[in-house]
Amino acid sequence: DGGITQSPKYLFRKEGQNVTLSCEQNLNHDAMYWYRQDPGQGLRLIYYSQIVNDFQKGDIAEGYSVSREKKESFPLTVTSAQKNPTAFYLCATRGGGYEKLFFGSGTQLSVL
Amino acid sequence: EDQVTQSPEALRLQEGESSSLNCSYTVSGLRGLFWYRQDPGKGPEFLFTLYSAGEEKEKERLKATLTKKESFLHITAPKPEDSATYLCAAAIISSGSARQLTFGSGTQLTVLP
């Protein structure tokens, strides 16, 4: 099945801890994105990557880091510098000549 | 500043009661206007893309339309399974090729049986 896999579905972070959210895709898409969704708010762009080994900051990159070592994978690390990490995190891809974004099923991150 | 605003924030309808959701946008160069459906705890699911004023697209009970300033998502005779949050997003002409989307905050639709 072609698609985008995000894991874990639920994640809990302790104070001072870094956590990493996984995003894997087998759609062969070049561009990958991370969005943050808070209740009652629109999706906000954290980071995006158009090709392997290259990525750019989005609107709310502070306290987050990413890597793009493989076309299929775009993990997001939420660092201890992100003071309000509780949110629903969505990974998306774009490619194949389509303008639209394809989304994963999301990871809900909460603080213990 | 590019902005996308959706209204109302929440809408409750009786089954069969038709209505419309609004998405107004102020962006510097629109490449496309996208509608997504999002169920609780899941990622958004693509519905439509509209590219030019006057364009319309339909899918089952949903019809999306576009003007130069706004888009409407018309829901005809909705059913309870149409309950979801509906997101619109604008793709803007930017200096890069990433064609980022600017999202509205969504309309939470509840259809009562």
What distinguishing features does this structure have?
heterodimer, A: 112 residues, mainly beta, 7-stranded mixed sheet, 4-stranded antiparallel sheet, 11 strands, 0% helix, globular, B: 113 residues, 6-stranded mixed sheet
What does this structure look like?
The complex is a heterodimer of chains A (112) and B (113). With 112 residues, chain A is mainly beta. Chain A is built from no helices and 11 strands. In chain A, strands 2, 4, 5, 6, 9, 10 and 11 form a 7-stranded mixed sheet that branches. In chain A, strands 1-3-8-7 form a 4-stranded antiparallel sheet, with no helix packed on it. Chain A is globular. The termini of chain A are far apart. With 113 residues, chain B is mainly β. In chain B, the strands form 2 sheets. In chain B, strands 2, 4, 5, 9, 10 and 11 form a 6-stranded mixed sheet that branches. A 5-stranded antiparallel sheet of chain B has the order 1-3-8-7-6, with no helix packed on it. In chain B, strand 7 and strand 8 form a beta hairpin. Chain B starts with a strand and ends with a strand. Classes of the chains: A mainly beta (112), B mainly beta (113). At the A-B interface, strand 4, strand 5, strand 9 and strand 10 of A face strand 4, strand 5, strand 9 and strand 10 of B.
Cα radius of gyration of chain A in angstroms? 13 Å
Low-confidence spans of chain A: pLDDT under 50, at least 5 residues? none
The portion of residues forming beta strands of chain B comes to: over 45%
Mean of residue pLDDT of chain B?
A: 92
The amount of beta strand of chain A, in percent, is: over 45%
Number of strands of chain A: 11
Q: How many strands, which pairing sense, and closed or not: the largest β-sheet of chain B?
A: 6 strands, mixed
Strand pairing plus helix content of chain A: what structural class? mainly beta
Write down the overall mean pLDDT of chain A. Answer: 93
Quaternary state of this entry equals heterodimer
Based on helices, strands and strand pairing, what is the structural class of chain B?
Answer: mainly beta
Largest sheet of chain A: 7 strands, mixed
Alpha carbon gap, first and last residue of chain A: 35 Å
Approximately how much helix is present in the residues of chain B?
under 10%
Q: Could you say which overall geometry of chain A the principal axes of the C-alpha atoms support?
A: globular
Cα radius of gyration of chain B in angstroms: 14 Å
Helical stretch tally of chain B:
0
Annotation field: number of helices of chain A: 0
Uncertain segments of chain B are: none
